[in-house]
Write a structure and sequence with these properties.
single chain; 2 domains
């Protein structure tokens, strides 16, 4: 996930998001121009957005958003609808976006994933594509290699430290 931003326009409800993004993850935040405190805005479903009796209602800070996905030129295009519609211009809307991977057209391109994932991705893709290339028996070779690499990655992403939970109001923190 990458943090991206867009800028509000007075009385505009919908914003076309970055062409590099193919999905948005909560939380989304809103920062008024000249302000220092970000306000979280909550996601809503398409149904919830469509049920709003007046989608042109305005406020200084929106409280909800809806992401519409459409196809444009064979790619997903994202539009964010804010509710209520912001009245100010120049405010910042920050969102976490899942970005499209880069095309590997030459050896100079760096991947968008950690290098520790390379073997796992390589073995998984090999197992997936082997039948398409009339190499079905190789699935039994690549699949165990993929599963081993995946388990290694899943096990490597854990913190191995103690944790203490303190109930709120116990008086000692």
């Amino acid at each position: 996930m990458s943090r991206l931003t867009t800028t509000s326009v007075a009385s505009q409800a919908n914003y076309t998001l970055s062409a590099l993004a193919f999905d948005v993850d909560a939380p989304v935040s809103y920062l008024s121009s000249g302000g220092t405190t970000r306000v979280p805005i909550e996601p809503m479903s398409r149904d919830e957005y469509m049920q709003k009796p007046d989608r042109t209602s305005t406020a200084s800070v929106p409280s909800q958003y809806f992401i519409e996905k459409t196809l444009s030129g064979g790619r997903v295009a994202l539009t964010m609808y804010l509710y209520p519609v912001p009245v100010g211009s120049g405010d910042t809307i920050e969102y976490a976006a899942a970005l499209r991977s880069k095309d590997f057209t030459d050896g100079a391109t760096n991947p968008d994933f950690p290098s520790s994932w390379t073997n796992c991705l390589k073995w998984g893709l090999s197992a997936l594509l082997a039948p398409s290339y009339a190499q079905a028996p190789l699935v039994m070779v690549f699949k165990p290699l993929f599963e081993e690499a995946r388990e290694k990655l899943l096990g490597a992403d854990n913190e191995k430290q103690g944790i203490t939970f303190v109930p709120f109001g116990s008086g000692s923190y």
